[in-house]
Amino acid sequence: PQLAAPQLATSNPTLTTVALEKPFCMFDSSLNPNKSYSIYLYAMMESAVAGVSPVTDGGGKPLNSTFQQTGGGRLGPYKAAVFSVPNCASPPSSADAGDVNKVADVLKQRLFRVGDDGTCLYDPNFLDVCNPPLAPDTTYRFKYALVDNTDGIMKDQTLWSDPIKTRRVKLPMKIDTWPGRRSGGMIVITSILSVFLFLLLSGFLASVFSTVKRFEDSSMETRHVPQTVQQGELSLQESSE
């Protein structure tokens, strides 16, 4: 098993997952056209000594060890997935990964993500193969096995993969927030948002100032009207006398 190509899976591995290429054309010589086969994917921690870890019992039957039974792969290999043998005659094209209408189907056919199920361990009704999240900052190895569905016997298998390590959790105090480490696009977006906030605040202050100004002008007019009326009444009294 190999890591998925960067153009198909970015940020791979993650803290808890590893995206692997499915075994296209890997077991062709072992396939019988009159039989049905499945691919088993086994996972284990590097500390479990992958080189001498068999995935069959004494009778050639594939192991059905679970994530829980092996302590998440710490004690030995566990079955992380079961899927159909990929079609070697017509593999999905990598070029189709650039088509938004085809990308989901292409990724499903070409890749398998180990550690992608966050609920199976806690679901009492879950009966399928459990593929829980992997441990961060931990080295794993993986193996594909070809299993005859009729006889339940393993017909072929790959070597264990090279060591693959999940990412380490980064402490908040070690995250670099200096602008020099930010991309140009992030700086432009931040600048635009800052200008927008300044304009919004300026508009709000202008609106408040305008409202206060109108209120003051209205108060002055109200005080001026009674004075004018009073002066007119005095003029009438003087004329009558």
From TrEMBL:
Stretch list, region Disordered: 220-241
Bilayer-spanning residue ranges: 187-209
InterPro entries: Uroplakin-3
Keywords, in A-Z order: Membrane, Transmembrane, Transmembrane helix
Biological process annotations from GO: urea transport; water transport
Keyword Transmembrane helix: yes
Compositionally biased tracts (Polar residues): 225-241
Any one of the GO CC terms: plasma membrane
Protein name (record): UPK3A protein
Lineage: Eukaryota, Metazoa, Chordata, Craniata, Vertebrata
Name of the gene encoding the protein in the UniProt record: Upk3a
